Amino acid sequence: MSGIDDFARSGTPLCDEPADSASRCGLGSGDLCIPYRRVHDGTWGYLWGDCWRGPGQSGDYLGSPLILVEDDFDPSGARAIEFTRPLPGDRPAGQLFDYRHHADNGFGVTEVSRIPNDAIEFGGRTFVQYTSVHTWVPPDSDTDGSAFSGIAYSDDYGITWQDFPHHWPGAALGINGNPYGMWTFAGIDPDGYLYIFAKPWNGSHHFRHDRGGIHLFRYDPAAFFHGDFAAQQNWAHIDGEWGWYPAARQAPTPIFGPGNNLGEFSVERIGPVYVMSYFDCSDLSIRTRTAPRPDALWSAAKTQVVHDATASPAHAGRPQLPNLYGGYLHPGSSSPDNLTAVISRWTGIAGSGPYTATQWTGLSA
After folding, report:
1. Which residues pair with residue 153 across a beta bridge?
2. φ, ψ for residue 207 (rounded to 5)?
3. CA 197 to CA 175: how far, in whole Å?
4. Could you read off the pLDDT of 306-326 as tens digits, one per residue?
5. Measured by CB atoms within 10 angstroms of the end CB, which terminus of the chain is less buried, N or C?
6. Is the peptide bond before 65 cis (omega within 30 degrees of 0)?
7. Using an 8 Å Cβ cutoff, are 17 and 359 in contact?
8. Which residues pair with 68 in a beta bridge?
9. pLDDT tens profile 12-34
10. Closest CA to 34 of 67, 11, 10, 56
11. How far apart are CA 128 and CA 160, in angstroms?
């Protein structure tokens, strides 16, 4: 593909535009917009981070996370994602979780915001994995800035939420660069296991020690459903071979060698393969990899969309989205050769330029 015109839909804003479908739901500007399948009724949920009522982070601060629902997703890209309603649905979009910002909510540490990383629904229950941010760190930070990570669940498909009692400590609670800081749900494989990838929190994109460490683990879905996190099995490299081990016996091994710092990431089973996407904080690009299984060998990284054409010679001719991050795969994508990804855009300065999530359809893994 030679450039932006080769894509069916390239950078369509999903909020922060006058009279768009997000604003009709009460959300003016926000980021992330992580897609997930609402299995119980066949609709699609979109999980947002910090949001405001007005464009450009103006008006009332709505909090984080929020969910907007779409009734019918068009995987061809001919019709842009259009949000139908917010959750819980009887009022404009608003924060789902019951917690206070810039306060101690009972964990002995100040929480700035709880940022969602992914969502999944199965067995009539919706799960959201999130990171509680203690502080947004500056560039080249020695600390990741997290407070802790947790999993909230809803038994009414996103109306009311509660936390599992287990939480994973972050930097502010003594574990800087905890490998379980941010998760993505790869889903329940045909073999019956729920596969999950995780890495240290780097939602600020400024944690200098990130090094791209992504880990793989899995659960029996019934164990995960009930919060039995001790049942975790880790994918680890021992004595020259990869294998599955009880978490109590063996920590997971990063599936890639040390490399560039990575931010937000996602993994979805699209057709016959698994596709991984992530924001490469060092390369300033959204990149993808593929594998036949979660625990198989992953392909080399493929650059999809870039901040601009100056960071690398490989960026020449690639589609550009200045100040990009995120890059969440849509599980409704029609094939690995026609992916939809949702990519956020923000200058990093409140009130300066767009603060939005954008739709890209036609990406080929």
Report:
1. 127, 162
2. -80, 110
3. 19
4. 999 887 888 988 999 999 999
5. N
6. yes
7. no
8. 46, 86
9. 999 999 999 999 999 999 999 99
10. 67
11. 12
Q: What are phi and psi of 4, to 5 degrees?
A: -65, -30
Cα 116 to chain centroid distance, Å, stands at: 7
For residue 223, what are its two tokens? Answer: 């164990």
Q: What is the rounded CA–CA span in Å between residue 105 and residue 365? A: 41
Other residues' Cβ atoms within 10 Å of the Cβ of residue 334: 16
Q: How far, in Å, CA of 310 to CA of 42, rounded?
A: 42
Q: Rounded to two decimals, what is the model's pTM?
A: 0.96
Place of tokens 């996407």: 277
Question: Nearest CA to 285 among 343, 360, 201?
Answer: 343
Phi, psi angles (nearest 5°) of residue 51: -135, 155
Tokens 């329940």 sit on residue: 188
Residues 6+ positions from 47 with CB-CB distance below 8 Å: 32, 33, 34, 35, 36, 65, 66, 67, 116, 118, 119, 128
